[in-house]
């Protein structure tokens, strides 16, 4: 107890932490997971929400992770990386066009 307030001592479980094998812990379309965060870094215009996908869905910035994030073999495939880079460049180009219009 500190200053009249009780602190919770139970462990905090987070859906944002990958498992020790590098595979993602949670597949959810409601809760933002590590896979959603990965998508945010691959395609920077998506998945801004910290905990839930609601505001991204409302704002049109939600992008559901695909097997490319969940499947270890696909996640480590250089052809997939090239496709993701190309997709990211395409999204960037569309964003630049919108800015100039």
From TrEMBL:
<feature type="domain" description="Fatty acid hydroxylase">
    <location>
        <begin position="23"/>
        <end position="60"/>
    </location>
</feature>
<dbReference type="GO" id="GO:0016491">
    <property type="term" value="F:oxidoreductase activity"/>
</dbReference>
<dbReference type="Pfam" id="PF04116">
    <property type="entry name" value="FA_hydroxylase"/>
</dbReference>
<dbReference type="InterPro" id="IPR006694">
    <property type="entry name" value="Fatty_acid_hydroxylase"/>
</dbReference>
<dbReference type="GO" id="GO:0008610">
    <property type="term" value="P:lipid biosynthetic process"/>
</dbReference>
<dbReference type="GO" id="GO:0005506">
    <property type="term" value="F:iron ion binding"/>
</dbReference>
<feature type="region of interest" description="Disordered">
    <location>
        <begin position="81"/>
        <end position="101"/>
    </location>
</feature>
<protein>
    <recommendedName>
        <fullName>Fatty acid hydroxylase domain-containing protein</fullName>
    </recommendedName>
</protein>
């Amino acid at each position: 107890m500190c200053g009249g307030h009780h602190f919770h001592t139970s462990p905090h479980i987070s859906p944002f932490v990958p498992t020790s094998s590098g595979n993602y812990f949670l597949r959810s379309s409601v809760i933002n997971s590590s896979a959603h965060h990965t998508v945010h870094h691959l395609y920077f215009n998506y998945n801004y929400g910290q905990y839930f996908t609601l505001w991204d869905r409302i704002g049109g910035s939600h992008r559901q992770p695909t097997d490319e994030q969940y499947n270890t073999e696909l996640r480590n495939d250089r052809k997939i990386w090239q496709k993701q880079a190309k997709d990211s460049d395409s999204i960037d180009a569309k964003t630049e066009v919108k800015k100039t219009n």
